[in-house]
Amino acid sequence: MAEPERHAWIDAGAGIAGDMLLGALVDTGAPLSAVQDAVDAVVPGTVRVTAHEVTRAGQRGTKIDVAPIAADQPHRRWCDIRELIAEAPLHPAVAASAQRVFETLAAAEGRVHGVDPAQVHFHEVGAWDSIADVVGVCAALHWHEVRSVSAGPIAVGSGRVTGAHGDLPVPVPAVLELGTGWELLAGGTGELATPTGVAIVRALAATCEPLPPMRVLTVGVGAGTRDIPGRANVVRVCIGERTAVTGQAVTEELWVLEANVDDLDPRVWPTVLTELVDAGAADAWLTPILMKKGRPAHTLSVLCSVGDRPRLQDLVHSLTSTFGSRSYAVDRVALQRDWRTVEVHGRPVRIKVSLDAAGRILHATPEFEDAAAAARGANVSVRQLLDDAAAAAAAHGLHTGALLPPTDS
């Protein structure tokens, strides 16, 4: 039986920085060698990543140090970093996640300083160490096979700090910009959250929530540089498998982006929808419409989080021939769900299960991509494989009105 998908929850209640989150993920068991290999793929021979155990206010944690091993480290622009990641021999999932983080960070810095995000210089966070933190975190999550991320409220601190642009309030402008739409709290004095750390959360975490219902497999603690009496300067990460909770449905505010298009080659639409979903959209779909003068056209709709909205809006503009788009906020109510795997013609097929408030099954649906792959391997039609998968699911107790059976584990 296939393993349930992995989820990572980030506890940033004491603050967050890129190196602290990386330390927490290494503390969960992600090999430092995998982190170093990923960083070397982007900036070879530039930095060395090391880890050692420390205590912060009496709590043990893993401290990550990123040290330059090459002289004259440049202050790279976002467009330079984007090119480095694109050309690096990284796993596509790691590269896509790292690009998303830097894009999120550059958009915030660009808005704060009034410049084109592509021309943002990462001098404030340091180009080489921010690359190590971001790429290292994405590589560590990939090593754990994490498929979804959420995080709690972020402690940002209070007071003032001196940066490259002089005396600044805490939270610094980029952190406050990145925190728009997220739950923030002061949490103490001084700078507790860095732009890189907050950008990682906003780019990779879909939801701000307390520790969600999950079967925790491992916990990691990453330490910051300062040891503050009475407050452990650490980030915690829990990695495990999400579990369904009866009596609850999740309501979240998302955004819908829309564009009417009447002049795009229809053969291109499947690739547009795929690229939008791969880029982080919660869903993307087409609706046939009739425009002025009787022109047949389509409305492209994209469902996304508030943090992904600017980036996906730009992607809609670049992937299609539209001259503009519109957007509006919506509430999405998601039923509690779980996954089970059944064997069909000797091949695994996942069954997606939704539950009502009493914990009884409302729907049990074979995952289409699994069914299509199994049909090819078994040399049967997809329709037959779907029917056989539904029958196998029912034989395992996965049918409407039944209580969700326990996993084999």
Supply the helix-strand structural class.
alpha+beta
- The counted number of beta strands is 19
Q: Give the overall pLDDT as a whole number.
A: 89
The radius of gyration over CA amounts to 23 Å
Q: Give the distance, in angstroms, between the N- and C-terminal Cα atoms.
A: 9 Å
Shape: globular
When the domains are counted, the total is 3
Q: How large is the count of helical segments?
A: 11
Largest sheet: 5 strands, mixed
Strand content: 25-35%
Strands in their spatial order, largest beta sheet:
10-4-1-12-11
N to C succession of SSEs: EHHEEHHHEEEEHEEHEEEEHEEHEEEEHH
Helix content range of the residues, please? Answer: 25-40%
User: Can you tell me the residue ranges where pLDDT is under 50 for at least 5 consecutive residues?
Assistant: none
Q: Brief description of this entry?
A:
By secondary structure, the chain is α+β, with helices and mostly antiparallel strands. 32% of the residues lie in helices and 33% in strands.
Walkthrough of the structure:
The protein is built from eleven helices and 19 strands. It is of the alpha+beta class and 409 residues long. It has three domains: 236 residues, no CATH class; 85 residues, Alpha-Beta Plaits; 60 residues, Ubiquitin-like (UB roll) (Roll), CATH 3.10.20.300. The strands form six sheets. It has a five-stranded mixed β-sheet with strand order 10-4-1-12-11. The protein has a four-stranded antiparallel β-sheet with strand order 14-15-13-16, with helices on one face. A hairpin with a 2-residue loop joins strand 2 and strand 3. Helix 4 packs antiparallel against helix 5 and helix 4 packs across helix 7. The radius of gyration is 23 Å and the shape is globular. The mean pLDDT is 89.
